[in-house]
Amino acid sequence: MENATILHKANEFVKKGNYESFLAYCTQNTKWFFVGERILEGKDKVRAYMQEFYFEPPVFTVEMTIEEGDYVTVTGEITLKAANGTYNHYDYCDIWRFENGKIAELKAFVIEKKS
Q: Which of 50, 64, 115, 51 is nearest to 88 (CA)?
């Protein structure tokens, strides 16, 4: 589980709000697809996204990790603080593609939990 180990290590930096250290695990031209929402192309766009949406470091749990070749699929729950101070809760399924041990692509399915 080499790529899965790399991903979980990188995500520890996200949990601590150290986004630059996380980004060091990404390729320069990393591409993130948030299904039905947006596409981020390049490390600078991912950085801007994190600055815009991570008012506090996200809180997430991993339910399952599956690694197959250059791909790692992770499911779980994530909580994000919104600009108005409320917390939003989501279920997610992320499919990560790696190139030479770095994150090259993310396809994220994120569904808000309704109370």
A: 115
pLDDT per residue as tens digits for the range 73-114: 999 999 999 889 999 999 999 999 999 999 999 999 999 998
What's the confidence (pLDDT) of residue 55?
A: 87
- pTM over 0.85? The answer is yes
Matching CATH number, 2-112, of 3.10.450.50, 3.55.40.20, 3.30.70.270, 1.10.10.10:
3.10.450.50
91 Cβ contact list (under 8 Å, min separation 6)? 75, 76, 77, 110, 111, 113
Q: Which helix (H) or strand (E) holds 111?
A: strand 102-112
